């Protein structure tokens, strides 16, 4: 009768149990928990956790649109336009494709992101320091 309807995915305790890999410097960690790439290859979304520990800032140029919510800790987030925000738990951000964003933290922070992109090979990230 045609294709089956896909079921939803569930990742119990992901915020506490998922450990994103180190991606830059000695203090920046990011990992996709899920990507819809296999279900929707022409318009995938990928989501996961980003953690920054005290240390060097992380500068990232977005090649896709992304939403991020701060789930724990603190960040100072700024961009090339001069906009700067001290962010904490519950703050939500939209980073448009092409924006160059700098992330800093005093005590450490954890964010959940969802981006309009395929699952990423972490060796291809465009980080600057």
Structural account:
The protein has one helix at 14-17; strands at 22-24, 28-35, 46-52, 58-61, 66-79, 84-88, 92-95, 100-104, 109-115, 127-128. The chain has 129 residues and is mainly β.
H-E string: HEEEEEEEEEE
- Unreliable parts: 123-129
How many DSSP-defined strands? Answer: 10
Any idea what the shape is?
Answer: globular
Alpha carbon gap, first and last residue: 54 Å
Which structural class best describes the helix and strand composition?
mainly beta
- State the assembly state of the protein chains: single chain
Give average pLDDT, whole number: 90
Q: What is the gyration radius calculated from CA atoms?
A: 15 Å
In short, what is this structure?
This protein has 129 residues and is mainly β. It has one helix and ten strands. 18% of the residues are buried.
Feature tags:
129 residues, mainly beta, ten-stranded antiparallel β-sheet, 46% strand, globular
SSE layout and pairings?
Blueprint: H1 14-17, E1 22-24, E2 28-35, E3 46-52, E4 58-61, E5 66-79, E6 84-88, E7 92-95, E8 100-104, E9 109-115, E10 127-128
